[in-house]
Design brief:
Structural class of chain B: alpha/beta
Strand order of the largest sheet of chain B: 4-1-5-6-8-7-9-10
Number of strands of chain B: 10
Radius of gyration of chain A: 17 Å
Order of helices and strands of chain A: EHEEHE
Shape of chain A: elongated
Shape of chain B: globular
CATH class of one domain in chain A: Alpha Beta
Structural class of chain A: mainly beta
Number of helices of chain A: 2
CATH class of chain B: Alpha Beta
Helix content of chain B: 25-40%
Oligomer: heterodimer
Number of strands of chain A: 4
CATH topology of one domain in chain A: Alpha-Beta Plaits
CATH topology of chain B: Rossmann fold
Strand content of chain A: 15-25%
Bound molecules: thiamine diphosphate, iron/sulfur cluster
Distance between the termini of chain B: 21 Å
Chain lengths: ~100, ~300
């Protein structure tokens, strides 16, 4: 799997004994998403995408993925809507759409 | 001593896997992009060391853990010494193909972590030290560091009638590490990702200490839109305030000469932290750039 994803099995500690002792715990352990940070969501027009991968390269979150059929898709669980992908896309086929509109 | 078999890295052959994912960085954070890209080059056998600063604060938020390689937090002053320990530990355990890589901010590098870094370079420890330069102490709310450029507004270099932002020049960290006779050093920018990836790849093969100084805009501290991070990082190179260079085999190499510079005025006034600057102040910054570039063009190889 190329991307970690939120662990749905995770339950926050409810008793003191449930907390890990020391400062060591498994890597890539995600329990929360970042989607609530976003006011706009990037939408890729995959028909017009030329697959230059600039957005994939420049996303600070790494949420743009190459799907098995070669199209790019976005992990909206972790996209914060910064807008870098839309700004840097050469053919301009990523649009920022207002959330909830 | 360098292993010559380097891959040319492009967006096509760069690792699809993410090793820095689900972090709590602000939208458009240049520093988090620098960490993400470097780990894609270095891979899962990386041992990342992060001192106090944004990248540790956004990466390790119990129980969320954004690093999916080994990663740990060092003391603020001790990034390079912890890296030296990691490298020694890995050697003692006979681990092969690992990378001890540090990600420290400009404050953690040029101010508080400088002596540990200097010691590691002196010992030629096999470590990769990456300074993501967001030009202030961002995690504690934008205080001036010795890498904050002249004129920039921070909470400790405010703008009023008497003070007009930072009054000191930006320390030349790249030249400071080069003056140690370091095995490999480079400057980079998140606005030039392929150049940055190539330098990380090169550093991963150097049998000794590598230092990469990567320019990493911070929308929050600099006062620009989160979508403009890459543009700002590119503009810094185009207007000549930032140079892309390497120090290797005892000599300086200039990787990119913009020729005719783009407008420093546009670069500065596009960011909230510089918006108070008047024409005279901007001209002084232009003059500084010109004298630096005169020296670079005269003395460095291309
Ligand atoms: C010894 C010590 N002094 C002060 C602090 C408080 N502190 C935590 S993060 C930080 C700012 C770090 O700035 P920088 O190294 O530039 O990294 P950035 O936050 O910009 O990524 C400070 C001062 C600390 N954690 N440890
Ligand atoms: S304050 Fe700046 S450097 Fe820190 S996480 Fe936010 S954008 Fe990144």
């Amino acid at each position: 799997m190329s991307h970690p994803s939120r662990s749905k099995a995770y339950r926050p500690p409810s008793r003191l004994e449930d907390y890990p002792t020391g400062t060591v715990f498994p890597a890539g352990h995600l329990v929360e998403t970042s989607s609530g940070w976003r006011s706009k969501r990037p939408v890729i027009d995959t028909e017009r995408c030329i697959n230059c991968l600039v957005c994939w390269l420049l996303c600070p979150e790494g949420v743009i993925r190459k799907s098995p059929d070669g199209r790019l898709e976005i992990d909206y669980d972790y996209c914060k809507g910064c807008g870098i992908c839309a700004r840097e896309c050469h053919p301009g086929v990523i649009l920022m759409k207002q959330e909830g509109a | 001593m360098e292993n010559r078999k380097e891959r040319k890295i492009t967006a096509r052959n760069l690792d699809d896997r993410e090793f820095f994912y689900g972090h709590k960085g602000c939208p458009g954070c240049g520093g988090s992009l620098a960490v993400r890209l470097a780990l894609k080059v270095l891979g899962e056998k990386s041992f990342a060391v992060l001192p106090a600063g944004c990248m540790s604060a956004i990466g390790f938020v119990f129980p969320q853990m954004a690093f999916s390689c080994n990663a740990m937090i060092s003391t603020f002053a001790g990034t390079a010494s912890m890296l030296a320990g990691v490298a020694a530990g890995a050697r003692a355990l006979g681990l092969e193909g690992i990378h001890a890589v540090g990600f420290a901010g400009d404050g953690g590098t040029a101010d508080i972590g400088l002596q540990a870094l200097s010691g590691a370079i002196d010992r030629h420890d096999r470590i990769i030290y990456i300074c993501y330069d967001n030009e202030a102490y961002m995690n504690t709310g934008v205080q001036k560091s010795s890498l904050t450029p002249t004129g920039a507004r921070t909470t400790t270099s405010p703008v009023g009638n008497r003070l007009r932002g930072a009054v000191t020049p930006k320390k030349q960290m790249f030249e400071i590490v080069a003056a140690h006779g370091i095995d490999y050093a480079a400057t980079a920018s998140v606005g030039h990702p392929l150049d940055y990836l190539r330098k990380v790849e090169h550093a991963s093969r150097v049998e000794g200490t590598s230092y990469i100084h990567v320019f990493a805009p911070c929308p929050v501290g600099w006062g620009h839109d989160s979508a403009e991070t890459i543009e700002v990082a590119k503009a810094a190179v185009d207007c000549g305030l930032l140079y892309l260079a390497e120090y290797t085999g005892g000599g300086f190499i200039l990787n990119h000469d913009p020729g005719e510079f783009s407008s420093i005025r546009d670069y500065l006034l596009g960011q909230g932290r510089f918006r108070h600057l008047g024409e005279e102040e901007i001209e002084a910054i232009v003059a500084q750039r010109d004298s630096r570039w005169q020296r670079i063009r005269r003395e460095w190889r291309t």
